[in-house]
């Protein structure tokens, strides 16, 4: 093996790049939730419920990408 030879799976590299999407998505979801609560603190309960649902959906997509990175070889 030469020092410049690349070994490993490109699927794992693809998943590493794909983690940027869910990371940015989670940041935007909580940014919007915190911003809404700061503007209207009495609506905290109605604001946080969609925030948690959105967080769960984004994280489910991240886990799905993680699984597919190892299944597809």
UniProtKB/TrEMBL annotation:
<feature type="site" description="Reversibly protonated during proton transport">
    <location>
        <position position="59"/>
    </location>
</feature>
<keyword id="KW-0812">Transmembrane</keyword>
<dbReference type="InterPro" id="IPR002379">
    <property type="entry name" value="ATPase_proteolipid_c-like_dom"/>
</dbReference>
<keyword id="KW-1133">Transmembrane helix</keyword>
<keyword id="KW-0446">Lipid-binding</keyword>
<dbReference type="InterPro" id="IPR035921">
    <property type="entry name" value="F/V-ATP_Csub_sf"/>
</dbReference>
<keyword id="KW-0472">Membrane</keyword>
<feature type="transmembrane region" description="Helical">
    <location>
        <begin position="12"/>
        <end position="38"/>
    </location>
</feature>
<protein>
    <recommendedName>
        <fullName>ATP synthase subunit c</fullName>
    </recommendedName>
</protein>
<keyword id="KW-1003">Cell membrane</keyword>
<feature type="transmembrane region" description="Helical">
    <location>
        <begin position="50"/>
        <end position="72"/>
    </location>
</feature>
<dbReference type="InterPro" id="IPR000454">
    <property type="entry name" value="ATP_synth_F0_csu"/>
</dbReference>
<dbReference type="GO" id="GO:0045259">
    <property type="term" value="C:proton-transporting ATP synthase complex"/>
</dbReference>
<keyword id="KW-0375">Hydrogen ion transport</keyword>
<dbReference type="GO" id="GO:0008289">
    <property type="term" value="F:lipid binding"/>
</dbReference>
<dbReference type="InterPro" id="IPR038662">
    <property type="entry name" value="ATP_synth_F0_csu_sf"/>
</dbReference>
<comment type="function">
    <text>Key component of the F(0) channel; it plays a direct role in translocation across the membrane. A homomeric c-ring of between 10-14 subunits forms the central stalk rotor element with the F(1) delta and epsilon subunits.</text>
</comment>
<dbReference type="GO" id="GO:0046933">
    <property type="term" value="F:proton-transporting ATP synthase activity, rotational mechanism"/>
</dbReference>
<keyword id="KW-0138">CF(0)</keyword>
<comment type="function">
    <text>F(1)F(0) ATP synthase produces ATP from ADP in the presence of a proton or sodium gradient. F-type ATPases consist of two structural domains, F(1) containing the extramembraneous catalytic core and F(0) containing the membrane proton channel, linked together by a central stalk and a peripheral stalk. During catalysis, ATP synthesis in the catalytic domain of F(1) is coupled via a rotary mechanism of the central stalk subunits to proton translocation.</text>
</comment>
<dbReference type="Pfam" id="PF00137">
    <property type="entry name" value="ATP-synt_C"/>
</dbReference>
<dbReference type="GO" id="GO:0033177">
    <property type="term" value="C:proton-transporting two-sector ATPase complex, proton-transporting domain"/>
</dbReference>
<comment type="similarity">
    <text>Belongs to the ATPase C chain family.</text>
</comment>
<dbReference type="GO" id="GO:0005886">
    <property type="term" value="C:plasma membrane"/>
</dbReference>
<dbReference type="InterPro" id="IPR020537">
    <property type="entry name" value="ATP_synth_F0_csu_DDCD_BS"/>
</dbReference>
<keyword id="KW-0066">ATP synthesis</keyword>
<feature type="domain" description="V-ATPase proteolipid subunit C-like">
    <location>
        <begin position="13"/>
        <end position="72"/>
    </location>
</feature>
<keyword id="KW-0813">Transport</keyword>
<keyword id="KW-0406">Ion transport</keyword>
């Amino acid at each position: 093996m030469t020092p410049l030879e690349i070994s490993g799976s490109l699927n794992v590299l693809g998943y590493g790049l794909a983690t940027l999407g869910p990371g940015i998505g989670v940041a935007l979801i909580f940014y919007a939730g915190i911003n809404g609560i700061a503007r209207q603190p009495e609506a905290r309960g109605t604001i946080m419920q969609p925030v948690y649902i959105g967080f769960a959906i984004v994280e489910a997509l991240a886990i799905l990408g993680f699984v597919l990175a190892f299944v597809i070889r």
